[in-house]
Write a structure and sequence with these properties.
The complex is a heterodimer of chains A (139) and B (300). With 139 residues, chain A is mainly alpha-helical. Chain A is built from 8 helices and 3 strands. In chain A, helix 2 packs across helix 4 and helix 4 packs across helix 8. Chain B is α/β, with parallel strands linked by helices. Chain B has 10 helices and 10 strands. In chain B, helix 9 links the parallel strand 9 and strand 10. In chain B, helix 4 packs across helix 9. Chain B is globular. The chains are: A mainly alpha (139), B alpha/beta (300).
């Protein structure tokens, strides 16, 4: 199961002011799980998220109907890492069906649009769209 | 009472040596009265992960752009922003940022629209500072609120609008995006969500000179002779030309605008900040696809 439900995460962000949302995003960014060695040694397996201004790569694994996410992004791109980490916390561990049902509009609901700008939020939408596409290809 | 300029030999070759400072210079001048260091990054959180001691943060999107109108903030909001960062009209401002100063030069260009007299760029930006092992801190700077006057933004001298482009045929345009964006390949990848513009390609006659040609491996601007080779010999610009630069949203072209305006001394260079996200979505304007600049449309 994911570490947090999407609803709880939205509530966490909505409960605090804009500046604190940035700090929370930074915490997420610092807690993005490391890429396991099997991907670290095979960057060719990862898909680049073109919507993000900073380079981020993702890979989706489906094992027994459960979805696992892997991301890598440089330390110089904390916002992008934060987006990836948020998606990881609410999606990693969900079933295929739940991921495909996952709210496409989630990135707009966490109250970060104002804090980071609509343009940047688009990067998170791109990650989510790619996760769902990879899941539908691999189920 | 502006602070004395950086006398580095490299800068003295440029048309306006006073607009750049080196990491050495900044290191020696940190904390001086009358100096405010500003960090401006692509990544809105990068400053929080560590910044040059005493530096304040100005975000190009959430601070400099109006949240409703697609334009820069009002004259009043700009004055309030600068005051809140401890900047006065006579403050020497040094701006630096990530990505070889894309957003830093964009912020500098916006400061110039409002006519701030003394604003300089840290050559090489954040990456060079870090690569040299210089100090970063997460400590919030102590800010003595400034009293910045409300000044009128001048949109006619350094800024180009879409109608200016339509009257510009016959004068040089510089497209500073990647070759794939220039040729129009980039918006047509199957199964991938669209980019911000509805069409791909470039403005007719624009020369392709990706912004990064202007910097060396350390992210600092190349020497004057190298810049002349790129923009005069390579792109065919001539002294006295009326030049407009553009990119996707005007940030990378600010970096080129800076080089043409201050380093090579072109007196008539404008940045088209609407750039491709506007031009590539406008109804009825001419577009050229492929690697060639193409011909100017016939004006009847």
């Amino acid at each position: 199961m994911p570490t947090e439900t999407a609803e709880d995460l939205i509530e966490d962000f909505q409960a605090i002011g804009v500046k604190d949302r940035l700090n929370l995003l930074l915490e997420f960014s610092e807690n993005l799980p490391q890429l396991p060695a099997r991907y670290a040694d095979h960057p060719d397996l990862l898909e680049r998220v073109e919507e993000c201004q900073s380079p981020i790569y993702l890979f989706v694994e489906v094992t027994n109907g459960v979805v696992h996410l892997f991301f890598t992004a440089p330390a110089e791109a904390p916002t992008t890492r934060g987006f990836a980490s948020i998606l990881h916390s609410v999606i990693d561990g969900l079933s295929v069906a739940d991921v495909l049902r996952f709210d496409d509009d989630f990135p707009s609901k966490i109250g970060l649009t104002e804090a980071v700008s609509p343009l940047r939020i688009r990067g998170m939408r791109g990650m989510l769209a790619r996760i769902k596409r990879q899941v539908s290809e691999k189920r | 009472m502006s602070i004395e300029f950086d006398p580095s030999a490299k800068f003295s070759e440029y048309a306006h040596p006073e607009v750049l400072v080196s990491t050495d210079w900044l290191s020696q001048n940190l904390g001086r009265e009358g100096l405010v260091v500003v960090e401006s990054d692509e990544d809105v959180l990068l400053y929080e992960t560590g910044h040059i001691p005493g530096a304040v943060k100005i975000d190009w999107h959430t601070d400099l752009n109006d949240p409703v109108l697609r334009d820069y903030v009002s004259d009043e909001a700009f004055a309030a922003l600068l005051s809140s960062k401890g900047i006065n009209r006579d403050t020497t401002v040094v701006i630096y940022g990530d990505k070889s100063n894309w957003w830093a030069s964009y912020a500098l260009w916006v400061f110039k629209l409002y006519g701030h007299p003394d604003v300089r760029l840290l050559d090489g930006g954040r990456d060079k500072w870090i690569a040299e092992g210089r100090e970063l801190t997460k400590d919030e700077p102590l800010i003595v609120t400034g009293d910045y006057p409300v000044t009128k933004r001048d949109d006619s001298t350094l800024r180009a609008f879409r109608d200016d482009i339509l009257k510009h045929w016959g004068n040089p345009l510089i497209d500073v995006r990647s070759p794939e964006e220039y040729s129009g390949e980039r918006t047509h990848m199957p199964a991938y969500p669209e980019e911000g513009a509805l069409r791909g390609g470039h403005i007719p006659t624009a020369a392709s000179v990706p912004w990064a040609k202007a910097v060396g491996t350390d992210g600092a601007y190349k020497s004057r002779a190298e810049l002349e080779e790129i923009y005069l010999t390579g792109a065919g610009l001539k002294d006295g030309d009326n030049v407009i630069a553009y990119c996707r949203i005007g940030e990378r072209s600010s970096h080129t605008w800076f080089a043409l305006n201050y380093l090579l001394g072109f007196k008539n260079v404008r940045n088209y900040d609407g750039s491709w996200t506007e031009w590539g979505s406008l109804v009825g304007v001419p577009i050229v696809k492929g690697a060639e600049p193409g011909l100017a449309p016939k004006v009847s």
